[in-house]
Amino acid sequence: MPRFPVGFELAEALTAAAQHLHGTGTPDDTMNTAVSLAVRLLPDAEHAGISEIQRGGRLRTLAWTDETVRFAAEPRQGGHTPHRDWERLWTTPVVRTDDSEADGGGALSGLGLRSALSLRLRADRRRLTVLTAYARKPQAFDDDATRVGRLFVAHVSLALDSATVREQLTEAMRTRDLIGQATGILMERLDIDAAGAFDSLVKASQRENVKLRDLARRIVDANSASGGRGVTER
User: Fold this and answer.
1) DSSP class of residue 93?
2) What is the pLDDT of residue 28?
3) Concatenated DSSP letters for 194-234?
4) Do 115 and 97 form a contact (C-beta atoms < 8 A)?
5) Contact status, residue 48 vs residue 65, Cβ threshold 8 Å
6) What would the pLDDT profile of 98-146 be if each residue is shown by its tens digit?
7) Which is deepest, 62, 83, 158, 218, by most CB within 10 Å?
8) 128, 145, 159 from 64: Cα distances, Å
9) Which residues contact 222 (CB under 8 A, 6 or more apart)?
């Protein structure tokens, strides 16, 4: 993939990036791939990270290219974001920091990061997810870099949604199989039919205030540990 592509090369680079992103297996893999690709695609980008910001400014860092980025996005006092402009991302898709020193210093300039380009990946009523590219020189990200960034995060967002759905479907299948195993164990041990076993499982879940999936796992694990004996959930 060419570094800092333009024109037709940009289209090819974005296509290659999309293939890389959609080839990942989990949301975490997608985000780790995204920050690596961001540094290769965005002109003058030296570092990149993805953070999740909750209403009120609290955040967690989800992916980063290096420790400099992790420290740049880590909460300082009271767990709040060091990026004052990030609050604007609730209402606008892009925020640029042209010179952190001219803006009063802070966490970015303390790490030698003068420029930042923050691009919104996801947003709902409670949280937003942001991909930020950083550079050590001031005014590193111009309008062209912003356009490339917006095209890139569109691909990242689609890939991230796809990976999330795959993960949810995989977990749903695992949960279904786990509940099926637990139901079968209860049918055998309590000498009841499938409907009765499932009803017993649901009631136990409600009574103990435990998720059905977690209770099912506990039953299956207990049955395995006892060699198929001793399950008495009612």
Assistant:
1) S
2) 95
3) HHHHHHHHHHHHHHHT--HHHHHHHHHHHHHHTTS------
4) yes
5) yes
6) 998 887 656 787 888 999 999 999 888 888 999 999 999 999 999 999 9
7) 83
8) 17, 19, 18
9) 230, 231
Q: Determine the Cα–Cα distance for residues 96 and 86; give it in Å rounded to an integer.
A: 9
Contact indicator for 4, 41 with CB cutoff of 8 Å: yes
Decide if 119 contacts 94 (C-beta within 8 A): yes
CA angle 116, 147, 48 (to 5 degrees): 35
Angle at 210 between CA 208 and CA 212, to 5 degrees: 120
Dmax (CA) for the chain in angstroms is 75
- pLDDT tens, position by position, 13-30: 899 999 999 999 899 999
Give the CA distances from residue 221 to residues 175, 200, 216, in Å, rounded to whole numbers and listed in that order. 14, 18, 9
User: And the tokens for 215?
Assistant: 């209770």
Q: DSSP for 148-192, please give it.
A: HHHHHHHHHHHHHHHHHHHHHHHHHHHHHHHHHHHHHHHHHHHT-
Nearest to 119 by CA among 109, 111, 104, 130: 130
Q: 């990061």: which residue's tokens?
A: 113
